[in-house]
Design brief:
3-stranded antiparallel sheet, mainly alpha
């Protein structure tokens, strides 16, 4: 009886020891689990803001709106950059959960999260493929509509080309994420084979004559337009040459009748006498007794006195202008009275 009680006491003590050991091993793992979750959440918030700003800075939303996908997102509170930023945010959170549950060792939750995390980059690439395909489709539609806008079927061809490019992008995106590959791949192959067959049969058969006639018309039109372009270029060159010739003719090159520069004639005490009848500018003689500025007459054959001497700025022209006649344009024969030169005194 005493031996049985002793064995029971030993079993209880071992159980308590194992329990405390388990608790002591659980606490560090729990602390590490919580710490990984907190740090991962902070990093995820940081990645959310960074990705959103980068996508807005590079114009990702404008590309989405140009491609037509923006109309599908008008009724939602998220735009394209927000969706990709949220996708990156949840990817970081899932990676954090995978690391946090990995603290407890191998478990089914970690395996499930690992599969989802491995799938998220494919989803990111698929979204980018759809956006790029939509942008290319929009550009192709605008180009075809502008080139064939005058035709009745121009708009239809533009819409068909845009839809075809978008369909190719969607199929490529589905193949990227691994959804319905058994359906999308045969459909894509069938569509491409159909288009190739139509081109081969049409060009090799019934479209030979119509295309030959169209090519002849296009070549004739191109030849006529090239001749018009050459004529316009020759006319432009001739106009430039005429303009240069006219500018050269209008340039002052010392032609007869041009106005000469102002000539300053100093008349001091030592200058020769100005006698009566000496011709001045324009052939007009200055006779004796003709008053100068200041009211002092000049006698014929007598030199001008030093007090009455003034430096005169005479404007000469190539031809004399008689009194009362109209002066040519640009000729000024005004006499200016300047202060006396007293350097010789």
């Amino acid at each position: 009886m005493s031996e049985t009680v002793a064995v029971r006491q030993v079993d209880i003590g071992a159980a308590l020891t194992d329990m405390w050991r388990s608790v002591l091993l659980f606490i560090p793992k729990a602390i590490a689990f919580v710490a990984i979750l907190v740090i991962g959440w902070i990093i995820a918030r940081f990645v959310l803001k960074i990705v959103d700003r980068v996508l807005e800075r590079v114009g990702f939303d404008r590309a989405v709106e140009r491609g037509g996908i923006g109309r599908a997102l008008e009724r939602t509170r998220y735009d394209a950059s927000d969706i990709l930023a949220r996708l990156a945010y949840y990817a970081v959170l899932l990676l954090t959960l995978q690391l946090a549950f990995g603290v407890w060792g191998p478990n089914p939750i970690s395996d499930l999260i690992a599969g989802v995390v491995a799938w998220l980059p494919r989803a990111f690439i698929a979204i980018v493929i759809v956006v790029v395909a939509a942008a290319i489709a929009s550009a192709a539609r605008d180009l075809i509509a502008g080139a064939l806008g005058g035709l009745s079927y121009g708009r239809l061809l533009a819409n068909l080309a845009s839809a075809f490019i978008v369909a190719l992008g969607v199929i490529a995106a589905l193949n990227q994420i691994g959804i319905a590959t058994t359906v999308t791949t045969p459909v894509l192959v069938a569509v491409l084979a159909t288009v190739a067959g139509i081109l081969i049969v049409g060009v090799g058969g019934g479209l030979v004559k119509p295309m030959q006639q169209r090519w002849e018309g296009w070549l004739d039109r191109a030849a006529a337009e090239s001749q018009v372009i050459r004529e316009k270029a020759a006319a432009y060159a001739a106009g430039q040459e005429d303009m240069r010739r006219q500018m050269a003719d209008r340039a002052p090159a010392g032609a007869p009748g041009d106005v000469e520069r102002t000539q300053v004639i100093p008349q001091g005490a030592g200058s020769p006498a100005m006698s009566g009848g000496q011709p001045m500018t324009g052939g007009q003689p200055m006779t004796g007794g003709q008053p100068m500025s200041g009211g002092q007459p000049v006698a014929g054959g007598q030199p001008m006195s030093g007090d009455a001497t003034r430096s005169q700025a005479v404007y000469r022209s190539g031809s004399a202008t008689p009194p009362g006649a109209e002066r040519p344009a640009g000729i000024d024969d005004t006499q200016r009275i300047m202060p006396p030169d007293r350097s010789d005194r």
